[in-house]
Design goal:
2 copies of one chain form a homodimer. Chain A is α/β, with parallel strands linked by helices. Chain A folds into 2 domains: 265 residues, 3-Layer(aba) Sandwich (Rossmann fold); 106 residues, Orthogonal Bundle (Rna Polymerase Sigma Factor, Chain: A), CATH 1.10.1740.110. In chain A, a hairpin with a 4-residue loop joins strand 7 and strand 8. The first copy, chain A, contains 11 helices and 14 strands. The termini of chain A are far apart. In chain A, the strands form 4 sheets. Chain A has an 8-stranded mixed beta sheet, sandwiched between helices. In chain A, strands 4-5 form a two-stranded parallel sheet. At the A-B interface, helix 4, helix 5, helix 6, helix 7 and helix 8 of A face helix 4, helix 5, helix 6, helix 7 and helix 8 of B. Chains A, B: GO terms for molecular function: homoserine O-acetyltransferase activity; homoserine O-succinyltransferase activity. Chains A, B: Transfers a succinyl group from succinyl-CoA to L-homoserine, forming succinyl-L-homoserine. Chains A, B: It is found in: Cytoplasm.
Chain lengths: 407, 407
């Protein structure tokens, strides 16, 4: 993205400040809405009210049928595309896939991206004030499930006047929310786009999440989750947690291609006592440190728990076919060959279940060396498949508008 | 192992206390020897003297040709087989493979197992007193390479009067030492047995090790490695480090078969606020906690660094074939299908290099769902291959004794 910024820094697009790429949604401004409660959560607890922060890109059409909801993953947020200012160095986290002429084409769709409930980017979560105590919620914030997010996203849809999404789209944990949408509100989405996701975590996935949580909670600065009140921050624990996560987002091959065993400092020559440091070490440490300065540890715990708990078919007799027989949307599934966090096998299970439930599904297994992170990164085949599918979604909309006009 | 103890608890074997299995080496006692220095390390620093703790099983034959050296992995030690007392609940870490009638048959071989230099089970290491300061070495203990271990193991061989090992045997990091033996002292071993190992770590391997080290060193109780002096212990950091390691020792499938998504406590029913805990979570926490009570954090750092630094062919123009052209021993290589820490591909690379260097090699890829840990666990095919190979080693010895008598 920075490269694009540099090369097009002199251009000036109509409607966009100088310096932004031509195919960017441009400068965007987060919005915020507080929904009155009571809002009952899956755990049984009730929020009196809650705030969601969100952004929108593109124009909602007259019959409000072109809405696309973006569900974010573990550490995502509402800023999915565009820039917050002309001097902003980085665009939103999915800018490569959202914008004019991009797979989620803002010339055709009205795109809504939000920070989920429990998040730490402005929506109500562990860093918010608990009205009962007047102090930050911290670890007392109720545990959330994907369905809680889906229910709150449905209230956001109501607010925007969107009765039915053209598509609900998400990668990883976001894909789990998209699938849950298809079961909780079958009539409220026409398409469900599930990328690099799974119907439930494996024991290994849970093990990695648990280790990450242990790194956070065993940091003495965690203070039982009351670090905000006590003015501490379990930075080290969160950095280690992020390092663990980061390794699992990348593939063995991808890490090997990116870093190999290249040294950043030190030497292997005999007689030199200095410690050797591999590039991959400093890279990971940087990733951990920068994350721990910008993300809330309690939110990280809450999000990983929601991942662990997600089990699409639990309430359907553990039968995914029974579960998906309630879906009314069409599905696009995408997986990436080197993704070992949510391997292609996990997406094939979803595809199989959908087919057995007679739900229309398009499934693409995309070659990529980038591991789980591939869903965020440029990849020609992925872009083509994604764009082609979303073009069909847009064409369907246009057809339905034409047929309404004709009637 | 405990099961065997229980079922044979009533039997009484001649030469063994009641309660020990018939095919155990029985009660063993660690020995200790302090080697006079100066002992120059690969990093350039020099130890004035050092102590190694070791155990031996079986009898050294008259011409001292039946010695088998066991090299341990990351968290191993000298207690590889047998029991330290009749009430000992668990035998040594490789008891399943060392003993009378077992693959490394103590009726035929004189088996030597040691705690490596830098270890924390009695050999000189970070918990030992630095003679220059009178305080524990801590993080000031010199960084070690596999070759330092091999050189010190050669001094142990000298002490025992063993000019040539019948075999040097090791799994994982132990296999790296065995390979290094074949290049550093080509004439001092007849066979080299390398199990679940690699010629060097991948960037992903290093990344996991670095994350584990970060968990330890960022624990405030680490105190720059001087926790012994300051009477603290980075228990939490070491526990997280061990949890990370443990996940990589097991396979995704293995974890899934062992734990699936079974719950230990809590429930998924709506309306219940209690946190859900999966069995795999409590298992990992237990593994981490029990390890952090018995292992030295500085040793863990030192051992993982030695793993990272190991690169068999570095001094041979990065060409494994050139490296192995110096070897004079025969090789047995074993890998396990579900081992993703040192995948079969890594062993195939060793086998290829050996074949191109015209070194005799037997390579077996063993089906196992147990991941990297498979090298420690019962497995009929692995046992058969291992036993058959070691029987040949013993037969060779007998033949060479006969041919010497005939001359």
């Amino acid at each position: 993205m920075r490269k694009i910024l540099t090369t097009e820094a002199q251009s000036h697009q109509s409607g966009k400040p100088a310096g932004l790429p031509a195919n960017s949604v441009g400068i965007v401004e987060p919005k915020s809405h507080t929904f009155p409660g009571p809002f009952k959560l899956a755990c049984g607890r009730v929020l009196d009210e809650y705030t969601l922060v969100y952004e929108t890109y593109g124009q909602l059409n007259a019959d409000k049928s072109n809405g696309v909801l973006i569900c974010h993953a573990l550490s995502g947020h509402h800023h999915a595309a565009g820039y917050h200012s002309a001097s902003d160095k980085r665009p939103g986290w999915w800018d490569h896939y959202i914008g004019p002429g991009k797979p989620i084409d803002t010339n055709k769709f009205f795109v809504v991206a939000l920070n989920n409930l429990g998040g730490c980017h402005g929506s109500t979560g562990p860093t918010s004030i608990n009205p009962e105590t007047g102090k930050p919620w911290g670890a007392d914030f109720p545990p959330l499930r994907a369905r809680d997010w889906v229910h709150s996203q449905a209230q956001l849809a109501d607010l925007l006047g969107i009765q039915q999404w053209a598509a609900v789209v998400g990668g990883s944990l976001g894909g789990m929310q998209a699938m849950r949408w298809s079961l909780e509100y079958p009539e409220r989405l026409r398409h469900c786009v599930v990328i690099a996701s799974a119907m439930k975590l494996s024991a290994q996935n849970i093990a990695f999440n648990e280790t990450a949580r242990q790194a956070i909670t065993s940091d003495p600065d965690f203070r039982d989750g009351r670090y905000l009140e006590e003015d501490t921050l379990p930075r080290h624990g969160l950095a280690v947690a992020r390092m663990i996560g980061h390794i699992t987002y990348l593939s063995d091959d991808g890490l090997g291609k990116k870093f190999g065993r290249e040294l950043r400092s030190g030497t292997f020559e005999q007689g030199v006592e200095e410690l050797v440091e591999f590039q991959v070490q400093s890279y990971l440490r940087y990733q951990g440190d920068s994350f721990s300065g910008s993300f809330d540890p309690n939110t990280y715990i809450l999000m990983t728990r929601a991942l662990d708990y997600f089990d699409l078919a639990r309430e359907y007799g553990d039968d995914p076919v029974t579960a998906f027989s309630h879906a009314r949307s069409k599905f696009l599934l995408v997986s990436f060959t080197s993704d070992w966090r949510f391997a292609p096998e996990r997406s094939r299970e979803i595809a199989d279940a959908l087919m057995h439930a007679n739900v229309p599904v398009t499934y693409a297994e995309v070659e990529s060396p980038m591991g789980h992170d591939a869903f965020l990164l440029p990849n020609a085949r992925y872009e083509n498949i994604f764009a082609a599918y979303m073009n069909n979604v847009a064409r369907e909309l246009a057809d339905s508008v034409r047929s309404e006009v004709a009637q």
